[in-house]
């Protein structure tokens, strides 16, 4: 099953615009500087919690070349990690439009399928959301170990010191919940897209958070997103998508998509690459966080 899924995610690269064959067969545009590769890895957190994981990453080759994405050679360099969590009744590959763009921008995007909230899960229950932050971190640790694994394609290519958590809907809950008390200092931030109210208190090392929410969301009310945002005790920004719902803005060509991709990619560049210009330049990320005289001058 994992092999079949990966075969459905083969990439062809045009100049600065990787094109992905999605599971449904539609072309997926992914803007960035790198061709994009994909691996499918098998992790678990105990026998009853299998965590099949898709990993998109910067691949070797020049923009404009044609690269087979399945297990493609990794680009030269070390790349920071993003752990992406899908929502209820969803799958990692449903978010390929976003994850491949992040990979093309120079990030290794790790996306597990959670055992009890993924699409068509045999024992589906939303109550399992509380277990997913630990699942996500276990997968981060598993991928991080590959940087030191002799002969593994990722060996020497992963910046394991810096991680950002991201997710949509129930996956946004998972990403936010990774920042409760006791979390690793490796977590430098989180991207919370249409996230629900968490059942925990934020705590531990400060981790900058970007919230994105449509103010016409019928699934997770906008007021809920604002309430979660208000509880964050450290640096935070909120991007309101006016008139938009729970997720239409995650599809190319839809209103709000460019703002989401620009703000999230700039956030990753800021938090993981230390790119101050990504935070300070005019654009949706600066709108979300507001001016910062100390940082931006």
Brief summary of the model shown:
This is Chlorophyllase. The chain is an alpha/beta fold and 297 residues long.
- The CATH class label is Alpha Beta
Which regions contain 5 or more consecutive residues with pLDDT less than 50? 1-30
> What's the CATH topology label?
Rossmann fold
CATH superfamily: Alpha/Beta hydrolase fold, catalytic domain
The share of residues in extended strands comes to 15-25%
Please state the average pLDDT score. Answer: 87
Assembly annotation: single chain
Physical arrangement of strands within the biggest beta sheet: 4-5-7-6-8-9-10-11
Organism: Asanoa hainanensis
Protein name: Chlorophyllase
Keywords: Hydrolase, Lipid degradation, Lipid metabolism
GO biological process, one term: lipid catabolic process
Care to describe what's here?
The protein has 297 residues and is α/β, with parallel strands linked by helices. The chain has one domain (39-62, 73-296): Alpha/Beta hydrolase fold, catalytic domain (Rossmann fold, 3-Layer(aba) Sandwich). It is 27% helix and 25% strand. The protein has 9 helices and 11 strands. The protein has helices at residues 2-7, 96-104, 132-145, 170-177, 222-231, 257-273, 276-280, 284-289, 293-296, and strands spanning 11-14, 17-21, 27-29, 36-44, 50-58, 79-85, 108-112, 158-168, 187-193, 208-214, 236-241. Strands 4-5-7-6-8-9-10-11 form an 8-stranded mixed sheet, with helices on both faces. A 3-stranded antiparallel sheet has the order 1-2-3, covered by helices on one side. A hairpin with a 5-residue loop joins strand 4 (36-44) and strand 5 (50-58). The longest helix is centred in the C-terminal third of the chain and has 17 residues, at 257-273. The radius of gyration is 18 Å and the shape is globular. The N and C termini lie far apart (52 Å). Residues 1-30 have low confidence and may be disordered. InterPro entries: AB_hydrolase_fold. Keywords: Hydrolase, Lipid degradation, Lipid metabolism. GO terms for molecular function: 1-alkyl-2-acetylglycerophosphocholine esterase activity. This is Chlorophyllase.
């Amino acid at each position: 099953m994992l092999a079949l899924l990966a075969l459905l995610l083969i990439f062809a690269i045009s100049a600065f615009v990787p094109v992905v064959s999605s599971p449904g067969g539609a072309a997926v545009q992914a803007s960035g500087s790198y061709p994009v590769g994909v691996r499918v890895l098998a992790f678990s957190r105990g026998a009853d919690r299998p965590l099949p994981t898709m990993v998109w990453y910067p691949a070797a080759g020049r923009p404009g070349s044609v690269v087979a994405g399945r297990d493609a050679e990794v680009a030269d360099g070390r790349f920071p990690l993003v752990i992406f969590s899908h929502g209820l009744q969803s799958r990692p590959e449903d978010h390929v439009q976003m994850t491949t763009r992040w990979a093309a921008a120079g990030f290794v995007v790790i996306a597990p399928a959670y055992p009890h909230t993924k699409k068509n899960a045999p024992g589906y229950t939303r109550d399992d959301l509380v277990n997913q932050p630990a699942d996500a971190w276990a997968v981060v640790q598993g991928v991080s170990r590959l940087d030191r694994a002799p002969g593994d394609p990722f060996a020497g290519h992963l910046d394991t010191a810096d991680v950002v958590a991201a997710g949509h809907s129930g996956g946004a809950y998972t990403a936010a919940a990774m920042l409760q008390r006791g979390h690793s200092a490796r977590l430098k931030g989180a991207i919370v897209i249409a996230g629900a109210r968490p059942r925990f208190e934020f705590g531990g090392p400060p981790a900058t958070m970007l919230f994105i929410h449509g103010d016409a969301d019928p699934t997770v009310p906008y007021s809920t997103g604002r309430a979660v945002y208000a509880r964050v005790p450290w640096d935070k920004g909120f991007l309101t998508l006016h008139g938009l719902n729970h997720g239409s803005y995650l599809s190319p060509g839809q209103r709000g998509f460019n703002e989401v991709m620009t703000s999230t990619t700039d956030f990753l560049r800021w938090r993981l690459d230390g790119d101050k210009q990504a935070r300070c330049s005019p654009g949706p990320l600066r709108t979300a966080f507001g001016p910062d005289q100390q940082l931006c001058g």
